[in-house]
Amino acid sequence: MKKRIGKLPGTLNPVTSKLARWQRIYVNRSLNLATVRAVGFDMDHTLAMYNREAFEALAFRETLKKFIDAGYPAALSKLEFNPDFLIRGLLVDIDRGNLLKVDAHKYVKIAFHGHTRLDKETRHRLYNNASFKAYEFLSVDTFFALSEVQLFTEIVDFMRRFPGKVLKTFREVYADLRKFIDLSHADGSIKSHVMRHPDKFIKRDKYLASALVRQIDSGKSLFLLTNSALDYTNCVMSYLLNDADPDFPHWRDYFKYSIVSAGKPGFFMGHANFEALNPETGKAIKGTPTSLTSDFVYRGGNAKLFQELTGFRGDEILYVGDHIYGDIIQSKGVVNWRTMLVVEELDTELPKLETLRDSFDAIQKLLATQESVGEKLQILRSKIASNARQAKIALQNGEARKSRYLVAGNERLIEQASACDEEEQTLAKTVRDLLAERESKVHPVWGELMKVGLERSRFANQVEAYACTYTSRVSNLRYYSPHKRFTAFFDTLPHEI
Known about the structure:
alpha/beta; Rossmann fold; Helix Hairpins; five-stranded antiparallel β-sheet; 15 helices
């Protein structure tokens, strides 16, 4: 890795409010970049942003071929990839063949069986009558999982439309799916296409190189930590960074350490040794490395050994990745690295949400009105119950006139309560309709990534719990000083608002 001589670290300190929302870095826990000595990066969907429609369609088709080759009905070949159906953060009930969107309190708000949306009563019966454990379901945490779950959904829908054509349970279908996907990766039927035509499947970010150079110029050591093998890594990283900056002609010039086939999340918990590879030939160098250098690429290893061999410790390291479990939860929880989650969906969602601010304000006002009407209704119902009780007592005590007076008063109150009840139901329906319209403008099926209706989504809850910071892309680092202190200002409880 090269370091520029005679250039001071960047001093750009932009006013965050002047940045577009998708350009910002968001803070869950305060982070002082001045204390960070090393910054690590995942590759896929972090440094390398994919043309998701092209890549996922490729994975969908290649895996589907293996289903048919294994004896599944040839009619499955007519299944089509739909790039607009799925989002990250969903759960998959493999036994029932259902897709679920869950809020932060583990309440299933949206569910599909194939392409059929389950009604509220069915959702409640299956999932909300009793608390369920999320680990019992598959979590759609990565973009690579989208094509996998999309294909599962299409086969589930095929089984619904054509009963008896696939004589397997949904769980057995999914087991075959995992086997065929692993085979697709092993035989290169997916990644070989990417390596032949990286321009078709990978989007180049023209600001990526400058964002990395700013970190290097500030004195930080960069390292690459990816699960991809060396040949694929070399192809993708060369396409992204070779000749992007005259001072860094080769992608490895940016990184002090390059680690491939890392086996995350096991990398953060395991005890495997590093294996040095010749970066040109990919052949292993004999012996166990006693230090890490930029002369070699390393395979495998583990986080604790990485710290021992580099001298970087815990919160001196910031790791940037896209996988909430494999990159963020384990690196934070096991070795206490600071974390930055890349949530590339924010690139498209945040501009949409900007245009929907007025609708959100309108919903908030309606909710306030609904709450006021609801409180008035409860007061009226309490008065009606109290009057009815007192009228009964008065009648028992021989106070017929008083009893009639209370009953007559109740008739007026009942009319008022009925009007309030009707108004509250109208307001509730209006809110539901506005929320549905708002959500459909963000995503036609699932709505916002970070919300389910007015509640946080399960995905948002994980982001808040485990990611120190999050942003839409790595190159957003260029807007901030490498010595910036990110401060979390809003760590509040409901009683503090």
